[in-house]
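anyone else get weird line breaks when pasting these?? whatever heres mine. first is seq + tokens for prot A
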Amino acid sequence: MAKRVVPDLVFAGIARAPGEIVCASGMRMVAEFGIEDSMPPLTDLIVTGGPGWTDVVNDPATIGFVRNTTARLSAICTGAMILEAAGRLEHKRSTTKREVFPGETSPFDLLSSRTKTEVAAIVDDGGVITSGGVTLGIDAMLYCLARSHGRDVAEEVARVMEYSRALQANRSALGYA
């Protein structure tokens, strides 16, 4: 929807290697670029999470890519764990997924043992944005859109997505701008 409001937006999937990616849940996605490919300059890098974060934090090439990017950084859900592994949360406040199934360790608790964390929907510290669980990634992307293109644009995208009520409720309940 954002591209319909801001036609010059460009999105591309980036992974360890280009091509099909099978997520931990079995969902398949396609990455247009591999981390070693020549690609257009990045203005923003959105690091997504999910159960596969535990493998990604142990991949030196991917962690190096995240560590060395000059793009603005945002992390959705456990993408914050990847930012932390790349050293990009050093001296910064952050948040990540808190809720888990019984018997699992909360990623938020793990991250709290390594860096400064806040129980929050979105944390923006020095332009590095982290968000809570996956659905709060919608709010985080609207926050990024407002940062880059203005709040009116983000609110129009939320309206067209029929997300305005949820966005307002989350802002009120979870305390972010």
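and prot B, same format (seq, then tokens)
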Amino acid sequence: MKIFKLIVLKMFCIVLVQAQTKQPKIKVYLLGTFHFAQTDSTYDVLETKHQQSIAKLCKIVEKQNPDKIFIERMPDFEYVNRMDSLFRAFKNVDTVVRRNEIWQVAFKVAKALNHQTIYSCDHPGQFGYYYSQLENYASQHNQQSLLKGIGKGITIPQSDLIDEDSLRNNISLLAYMRWLNSKQVQTSAHAHYINLYPQMGNTNVFVYDSTYFLGAELTADWYRRNIKIYSKIIAQLNYSEHAIFLIMGNDHIPIIRHLFEGNPFFKVMDTEMWLGKSELK
């Protein structure tokens, strides 16, 4: 009798799993970005050439037809969806001109797709707190070279190997976004978090003190923040969506992509396939 019950239970589990996997997966479109309003004084996204490039970028996103658009904004620190009121004002021809990528991309795409709501999902981290501790420790324990990326087993982000302001000023905004979202740029940025910082702090594994895992705590906090961002996204889904779109600072994308890739209810769309590959090497 026990064997029969186990067989029935196993068959039920198999049927349940098959039913879940047959459900159409929600397509996930992830776009890493620079912060449009935080560039040097020589770059202004409101210039005609940049506005033309942004229009092309928005058209590309519109073609993916996402049901919900998520932005880098902290909802739980506003208590109400303040972004919806700002979005409504935007749709009614808001006279306030904002350079932020939320207005320049997310709002424009949402308006074109006749969305009624904008979805916020950001969460605060403590990067500044941990980094300042690392700086102090490095100066007192001869680890300054590590902090500068000099040492074994350290990846330097590709964005640190070039003059980003110069690059932005010499190519179109769309071309720059394609470069940002290229696999080599995002992979190198993510690698920097997981192979530089964990080497710092007290690395004597036999001596546990307040600086034990000091660098690893920074990396852990970065993961913690992005896991909570991911949690806020899926908390706002009803699983009837066919596609969702997220625009967020580029360094966030690798972890968020990994989380969605591990969730069988989602299919992460290759950004280089729908946005276009970068021509920069």
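btw re prot B: DSSP finds twelve helices and five strands in the chain. The longest helix spans residues 2-22.
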